[in-house]
Amino acid sequence: MPTLTGKHVLLGVTGGIAAYKSPDLVRRLRAQGAEVRVVLTPSAARFVTPLTFQAVSGHPVRDGLWDASAEASMSHIELARWADLVLVAPATAGFLARLAAGMADDLLTTLCLATGAPIVVAPAMNRLMWGNPATRDNVARLAARGVRLLGPGSGEQACGETGEGRMLEPQEIVAALALPGAEGPLAGRKVVVTAGPTREALDPVRYLTNRSSGKMGYAVAAAAARAGAEVALVSGPVDLPAPPGVRVVPADTAEAMRAAVQAELPGAALFVGAAAVADYRPAHPAAQKIKKKAGAMTLELVRNPDILAEVAASAARPFVVGFAAETNDVEANARLKLEAKKLDLIAANRVGADCGFDREDNALVALWADGRKDLGGGVKAELADRLIGLIVERMRASHQAQDS
Ligand code: PMT
Question: Of all protein residues, whose CA lies closest to atom 7 belonging to ligand 1?
């Protein structure tokens, strides 16, 4: 059964040499059952003609905002509404910059702003352009807004250099698009994810907290939803929009987070604890603002519940995944947590002033009882997809072991 049957895919093609692969991409999307309409930027039309795309898509091709007859048959707003998915392949550095800046200076960027459909980009550019801090920044901003990145891959480039920046092959792009939704590996499964910090009140105006922004946990929730799961995201106080298809349950304190997790747990197949839960809270939060006095002040703290360990110890436990935030001896400390909390898998990350917390990128190593996998580095959305892919593999392996 084709996995993109009936899907309306709006394919944007921008002006890079990889545009020569885009007609093949149209053909492969259609072979999977998608209906494809193509929009070219003016520079893309210098690489491949509109006629080629018209022939392979079976529809007229749009390449400007000011084509009166094309606007009369389907206006750009109608086209934006028509799309179930906007795919831009190749996406040049210039296009990513304009998309990140929210510009609407040509038909494609205007469509991207006007659509409610998910946007997926397959970047293609020289390796130094991809590595440039400006591009990294743009990519991170787009990922934080929910734009999905496919690739780029690594290898020999048209400019003669070798490195990261090649557009993924059309078959890889189609395979990645065909995964999410009803056919995804977590389809029909409930997943509970925690994210963000907790706030532990000292008095009505002060609290103890940490530097977690929630970005990693939100990315994990979004990746689980892309893999087809029904996702409940129990979230500490963060400034992030709910990822598409994810239900957010707010919980400010460790105790509120524990109650929300316990309420969401029945029927869950997977629990991922990415929240930075405060280990301690003030023993006696003051009802009124604490006044300053002469001399030092001593604060009495009591232990908070360990939400993750409790889930792992529950009778009908789901597959349980924790995170380990470590400043030193990252893997050794993470393995101790894996064992002490009786987890199925733990994702270890280094945290500090310049890594882990409150950043768009991260690096993870996954550990389980008799294995490990380095998931590498990248923007949190990409890493979350890799982590969910690995979790799915480990869940299957553990079910097979139970069945045999
Ligand atoms: O939110 P970001 O800015 O994107 O940053 C991401 C992150 C660094 C917060 C994230 O990747 C991460 O590492 N999350 C776990 C943070 C943490 O609290 O780690 P820990 O090593 O202290 O705790 C180990 C595990 O136990 C975690 O899964 C944690 O959710 C869980 N825990 C801890 C204490 C507690 N009382 N209850 C828990 O459930």
Answer: 357
Tell me the CATH number at 120.
Answer: 3.40.50.1950
- CA of 251 from ligand 1 middle (Å) equals 15
* Structure token digits, residue 351: 């945290």
Q: Residue 251 is part of a domain; what is its CATH number?
A: 3.40.50.10300
pLDDT (tens digit, 9 = 90+) per residue, 305-331? 999 999 999 998 999 999 999 999 999
Tens digits of residue pLDDT in 117-171: 989 999 999 999 999 999 999 998 888 787 888 888 877 888 888 888 999 999 8
Q: How far is the CA of 279 from the centre of ligand 1 (A)?
A: 10
The count of domains in the chain is 2
* Dist. CA 372–CA 333, nearest whole Å: 14
- 319 falls within a domain: yes
Cβ contacts of 277 within 8 Å, gap of 6 or more: 194, 198, 254, 257, 304, 306, 307, 308
What pLDDT is recorded for position 182? 55
Q: Whose C-alpha lies nearest to ligand 1, atom 13?
A: 325
Q: Is the beta carbon of 337 within 6 A of some atom in ligand 1?
A: yes
120, 145, 178: which is the final residue of a domain?
178
